[in-house]
Amino acid sequence: MLDSIVTSKTRIQILLRFFLDGERAAYLRELSSELGESTNAVRVELNRLTEAKIIESYTSGRWKLYRANKNHPLFPDLQSIVKKTLGIDKLAEEIIYRLGEVKLAFITGDYARGIDGGIIDLIIVGNINKEFLGNLVKRTELLISGKKIRFLCLTEDEYGQLESKFDKSSTFEIYRANT
User: Fold this and answer.
1) Range of the domain at 130
2) 152 lies in the same domain as 103
3) Residue 124, CB half-sphere, CA atoms under 13 Å: how many?
4) Closest CA to 37 of 76, 8, 66
5) Do 123 and 55 lie in a common domain?
């Protein structure tokens, strides 16, 4: 969807990376490595997006870091477009809200880092009917064509034991029950 509006593949990847989770920051070489693009290509796009004030830069120690400008008037719209592009809006709508006793749901892996790898890794914590979830996942995959959803269901106790194993920089929370 974004590729029909934005012609630069690198710019799309940067937008996905920063607008999926507006709190994430990264420096040039980290982005270059993560996106598999040259530092020059990433620098050019970062400069363009910074000049447009869509992304902001700041210094931390000797590093120049970049992140989404949450004060930009288009921030909510860009974030919504990114979530729709990745299919996260449909994922949350079709799966999470129909399962009943979901305590927590998050995406991990490439998608959580804003990289469209084709596979969405979904972790769901709670008391879930796995057969029902499997059917919902199949239907949702049809709505977000071209993407596969891999899921792991954990009880609250299991999640408590495994929580430290999840890399927080590679997770994106899509649902948390009000407790």
Assistant:
1) 87-176
2) yes
3) 25
4) 8
5) no
143 and 110 assigned to the same domain: yes
Residues of the chain with confidence (pLDDT) below 70: 1-7, 21, 86-97, 114, 143-146, 169, 179
Asked if 18 and 67 count as a contact pair (C-beta separation under 8 A), the reply is yes
86 and 174 Cβ atoms separated by less than 8 Å: no
Domain count of the fold of the chain:
2
pTM over 0.90? The answer is no
Q: Could you say which of 19, 46, 79 is where a domain stops?
A: 79
